[in-house]
């Protein structure tokens, strides 16, 4: 099982590109976590393992090109190895959606990145859909609804 | 006002941080003004909220727009609704009062004809589940589960239901029947649906202590009855041929497999009686998964890992545990650092149960000592000590030493940890005067003496002092001093203070033997001491050792010019600004002016030390704790003319204080022990902390939802007086300290402290103990986490 407390997308320059909090944190805690994790994770060498013990929980991260995907997970029950797979599934979904995703896609279309994430993780950060096809189909259908609403407005 | 795209571009184009801040602050102010305008067109409003989400990612404050987000949800336009829900999920959390405004909208949208609107409402409810929202909206979620045939909605409704049950356990009664119906439904039992069912089962098991109605056993039963269904799903996933939709690196849906395994683990763990009949079948399935999976890919390993954790957690058959250990050993032998990390972590937990199975894979564990990743090295060291025993220790110690040779500054904490643990282990196996152990410790000081604390170095001195094999010992000491004097091939790190300390001590203690055998010239030794005295003048500890060594050496050498050098060295500190060194040096010069014969008596060889008893195999209850470096001088000085060179430490002290026999001391202890009310340790008290002086146990008397009664027991290893117990709990809790049965306890006796913790959250305590022990006032502190929560 994996319970993701938060997911942060951090660029190699230490800038936050996306953040989603599944547990309730105060603004101060959020700032602290973002600040500390961007330095901790960025400082880790390539050969080191992708699991860090941080505060009272664990952090699993994975780097894709210039972006680090960083997940805080509950310490006891969560499966660290599976967390890596969840990150990968999310990245795969974005890769298909944006057709070879890059950091700029996420910066300019961050709401889309959130929309995709919302179809993968739900509630307290537990996985709700494992099929990439289903995830993409849902997001595409919702996008289509938006366009049709737009069309209605223009026609009227 | 520009579009979001230009805003993002502007922020990115900013050359300096100050410029970026200026752009962001300006835009933030503009959004704030715009959103205040009630007549703003909804398109504009949406645009502004969109920008606001970007500000949120930049770490800006967004609280001013909460109401606007919620208003956006009320819109009929799908674009507005979608962004509104997204903004609510991202900007709000379950503690905000504003959520009450959401209730009505969610209630409407959960009945919307558009499945995507319903799905967004479910996701938002799942993210922002305040107890009030849970209470108000559960009927709508149930409605979906009961009526909808859309698997997309059902999977989300199930997750949402699990979360609702987590918030309000009473809702379990409403939702539990759906575990069975969904599992049996071919249409709704998709992988997503099954993930939801698994969550609901977990919630049902975990809310046991909060569920107030009497029908919990029935509910549990109905869920346990679904176990065969879960088994067959697991088996199906593992046996089906390739299905591209769910395949991850050759493993079919590891996400679902892990979730189901975890659900089974919880069920078997929390309902051992009810699930007993399925236990064999579970073992079969776990064996199947553990043996059939190909473990080279991370996806397969994540399933194997979950499988092994389940085996260990449920304490299944020994053969299965061994299988699990072997799977983890395979992880260790691979190249991937993540699997190594989890394997070491998990093996550490299973060592106490299955030491031999873990033992077999020592080779892989030792290899991890040399991993480039510090977190893996730390765990490899811990695991090495966990499997440490009499048969493998020689090899293990050699491996640790070769690790130390390669270690550096970045491993400081780890090095200190290794030295501490090794000294404890040698002590535990009563090897502290074994020559092999001494040689190894000396070698370790040679390699990493700069990191080791002086206390630990003096533990090594005690080991050397206590060794009976004089000839071998002298050979070792000769090597030590030769290296220090630069007479050997190998060179020494100049920062290695631990080694300096050791050599200085050896010169003082064994100078006479070394000189008699003609191993060194007396001038070599004195020059060395004077040299160190000059170099390390700021290091009080080392200087006081040098002073003692100089004094001792002065009685052991004949050469008058050397003696004069030593006298100068000692006199040089009579005006030292450090009071300790000054008084020491003044006292020493007094001794130095005594006639030679008397001096030799005073400065004779040290008696045997007994270290404070960690292994508890000593029966001297009155034995004082001897701190070597503080007392050796005292002992030396006061031992007087006694010619006994080999003497029990406690006797020595008794001699000092002038009591001619031991009888005087023993009765005191006896009266002490009979005077206090004797308490015995209850069977169910768990040991939580141990030190030289005492063992501490905790017993949980009761854990009600908001209050826990605890008892803390302290069993003294030696006499403890004026005991004070201070404790603290986390902020969400309140602690009431009750009665302490006795502030003084004799060795072996027990005292009890009552405590009451009220509030909520994980039950954990920080305890501080202050007492007068054999070596003066001692403060000890430890933390303890209980399994229970309030």
UniProtKB/TrEMBL annotation, chain A:
AP complex mu/sigma subunit domain residues: 3-145
GO biological process: Golgi to vacuole transport; intracellular protein transport; vesicle targeting, trans-Golgi to endosome
SUPFAM superfamilies: SNARE-like
InterPro entries noted in UniProt: AP1_sigma (IPR044733), AP_complex_ssu (IPR016635), AP_mu_sigma_su (IPR022775), Clathrin_sm-chain_CS (IPR000804), Longin-like_dom_sf (IPR011012)
Entry GO terms, CC: AP-1 adaptor complex; cytosol
Entries under Pfam families matching the protein: Clat_adaptor_s
Coiled coil (UniProt feature): none
Keyword annotations of the record: Cytoplasmic vesicle, Golgi apparatus, Membrane, Protein transport, Transport
Cell location: Cytoplasmic vesicle, Clathrin-coated vesicle membrane; Golgi apparatus
Annotated GO MF terms: clathrin adaptor activity
Alphabetized PROSITE patterns for the sequence: CLAT_ADAPTOR_S (PS00989)
Similarity remark: Belongs to the adaptor complexes small subunit family.
Stated name of the protein: AP complex subunit sigma
Organism encoding this protein: Lachancea lanzarotensis
From TrEMBL, chain B:
Subcellular location as annotated: Cytoplasmic vesicle membrane; Golgi apparatus
One Gene Ontology term from the biological process aspect of the record: endosome to plasma membrane protein transport
Pfam families per UniProt: Adaptin_N, Alpha_adaptinC2
GO molecular function: clathrin binding
A GO CC term assigned to this protein in UniProt: endosome
Domain Clathrin adaptor alpha/beta/gamma-adaptin appendage Ig-like subdomain: start-end pairs: 678-787
Matches recorded under InterPro entries: Adaptor_Complx_Large_Subunit, AP1_complex_gsu, ARM-like, ARM-type_fold, Clathrin/coatomer_adapt-like_N, Clathrin_a/b/g-adaptin_app_Ig, Clathrin_app_Ig-like_sf
Keyword list, A-Z: Cytoplasmic vesicle, Golgi apparatus, Membrane, Protein transport, Transport
Recorded family membership: Belongs to the adaptor complexes large subunit family.
PANTHER family associated with the record: ADAPTIN, ALPHA/GAMMA/EPSILON
Name of the protein described by the UniProt record: AP-1 complex subunit gamma
């Amino acid at each position: 099982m994996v319970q993701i407390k938060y997911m942060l997308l951090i660029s190699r320059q230490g800038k936050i590109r996306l953040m989603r909090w599944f547990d309730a944190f105060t603004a101060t805690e959020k700032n602290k976590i973002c600040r500390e994790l961007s330095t901790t994770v960025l400082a880790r060498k390539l050969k080191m393992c992708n699991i860090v013990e941080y505060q009272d929980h664990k952090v699993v991260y994975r780097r894709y090109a210039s972006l680090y995907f960083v997940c805080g997970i509950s310490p006891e029950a969560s499966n660290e190895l599976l967390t890596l797979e969840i990150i990968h599934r999310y990245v795969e979904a974005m890769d298909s959606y944006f057709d070879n995703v890059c950091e700029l896609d996420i910066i300019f279309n961050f709401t889309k990145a959130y929309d995709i994430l919302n179809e993968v993780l739900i509630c307290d950060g537990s996985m709700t859909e494992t099929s990439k096809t289903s995830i993409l189909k849902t997001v595409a259908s919702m996008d289509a609804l938006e366009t049709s609403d737009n069309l209605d407005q223009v026609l009227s | 006002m520009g579009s979001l795209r230009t805003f993002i571009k502007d922020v990115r184009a900013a050359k300096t941080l100050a410029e970026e801040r200026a752009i962001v602050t300006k835009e933030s102010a503009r959004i704030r003004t715009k959103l205040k305008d009630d007549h703003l067109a909804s398109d504009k409003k949406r645009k502004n909220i969109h920008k606001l989400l970007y500000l949120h990612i930049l770490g800006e404050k967004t609280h001013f727009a909460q109401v606007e987000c919620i208003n956006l949800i009320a819109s009929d336009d799908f674009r507005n609704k979608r962004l509104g829900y997204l903004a609510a999920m991202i900007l709000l959390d379950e503690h905000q009062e504003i959520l009450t405004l959401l209730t009505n909208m969610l209630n409407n949208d959960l009945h919307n004809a558009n499945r995507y609107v319903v799905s967004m409402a479910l996701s938002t409810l799942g993210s922002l589940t305040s107890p009030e929202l849970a209470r108000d909206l559960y009927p709508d979620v149930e409605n979906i589960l009961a009526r909808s045939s859309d698997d997309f909605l059902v999977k989300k409704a199930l997750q949402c239901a699990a979360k609702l049950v987590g918030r309000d356990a009473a809702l379990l009664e409403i939702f539990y029947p759906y575990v069975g119906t969904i599992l049996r439904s071919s249409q709704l039992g998709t992988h997503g649906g099954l993930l939801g069912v698994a969550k609901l089962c977990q919630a049902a098991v975990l809310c046991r202590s909060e569920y107030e109605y009497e029908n919990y056993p029935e509910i549990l039963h109905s869920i346990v009855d679904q176990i065969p269904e879960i088994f067959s799903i697991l088996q199906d996933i593992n046996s089906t041929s390739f299905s591209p939709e769910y395949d991850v690196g050759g493993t079919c849906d590891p996400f679902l497999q892990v979730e189901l395994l975890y659900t089974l683990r919880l069920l078997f763990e929390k309902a051992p009686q009810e699930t007993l009949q399925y236990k064999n079948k579970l073992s079969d399935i776990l064996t199947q998964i553990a043996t059939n999976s190909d473990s080279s890919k991370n996806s397969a390993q994540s399933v194997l890992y979950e499988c092994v954790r389940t085996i260990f957690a449920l304490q299944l058959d020994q053969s299965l545990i061994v299988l699990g250990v072997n799977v983890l050993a395979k992880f260790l032998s691979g190249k991937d650092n993540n699997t190594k990390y989890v394997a070491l972590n998990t093996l550490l937990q299973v060592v106490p149960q299955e030491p031999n199975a873990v033992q077999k894979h020592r080779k892989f564990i030792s290899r991890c000592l040399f991993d480039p990743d510090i977190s893996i090295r730390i765990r490899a060291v811990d695991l090495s000590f966990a499997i440490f025993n009499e048969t493998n220790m020689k090899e293990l110690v050699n491996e640790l030493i070769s690790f130390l040779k390669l270690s550096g500054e970045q491993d400081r904490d780890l090095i200190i940890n290794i030295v501490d643990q090794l000294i404890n282990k040698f002590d535990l196996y009563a090897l502290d005067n074994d020559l092999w152990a001494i040689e190894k410790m000396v070698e370790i000081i040679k390699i990493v003496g700069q990191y080791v604390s002086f206390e630990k170095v003096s533990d090594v001195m005690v080991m050397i002092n206590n060794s009976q094999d004089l000839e071998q010992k002298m050979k070792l000491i000769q090597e030590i001093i030769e290296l220090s004097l630069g007479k050997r091939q190998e060179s020494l790190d100049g920062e290695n203070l631990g080694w300096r300390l050791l050599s200085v001590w050896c010169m003082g203690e064994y100078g006479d033997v070394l000189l008699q055998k003609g191993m060194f010239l007396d001038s070599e030794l004195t020059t060395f001491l004077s040299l160190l005295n000059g170099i390390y003048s700021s290091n009080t500890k080392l200087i006081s050792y040098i002073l003692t060594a100089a004094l001792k050496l002065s009685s052991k050498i004949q050469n008058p010019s050397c003696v004069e050098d030593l006298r100068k060295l000692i006199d040089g500190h009579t005006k030292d600004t450090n009071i300790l060194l000054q008084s020491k040096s003044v006292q020493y010069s007094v001794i130095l002016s005594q006639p030679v014969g008397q001096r030799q008596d005073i400065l004779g060889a040290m008696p045997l030390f007994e270290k404070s008893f960690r292994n508890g195999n000593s029966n001297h209850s009155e034995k004082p704790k001897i701190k070597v470096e503080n007392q050796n001088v005292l002992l030396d000085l006061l031992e007087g003319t006694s010619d006994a060179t080999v003497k029990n430490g406690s006797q020595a002290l008794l001699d000092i204080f002038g009591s001619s026999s031991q009888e005087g001391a023993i009765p005191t202890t006896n009266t002490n022990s009979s005077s206090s009310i004797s308490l015995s340790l209850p069977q169910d008290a768990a040991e939580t902390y141990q030190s030289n002086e005492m063992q501490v146990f905790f017993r949980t008397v009761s854990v009600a939802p908001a209050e826990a009664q605890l008892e803390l027991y302290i069993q003294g290893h030696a006499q403890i007086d004026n005991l004070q117990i201070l404790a603290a709990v986390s902020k969400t809790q309140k602690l009431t300290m009750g009665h302490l049965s006795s502030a003084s306890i004799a060795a072996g006796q027990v005292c009890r402290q009552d405590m009451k913790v009220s509030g909520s959250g994980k039950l954990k305590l920080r305890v501080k103990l202050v007492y007068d022990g054999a070596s003066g006032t001692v403060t000890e502190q430890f933390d303890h986490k209980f399994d229970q929560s309030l």
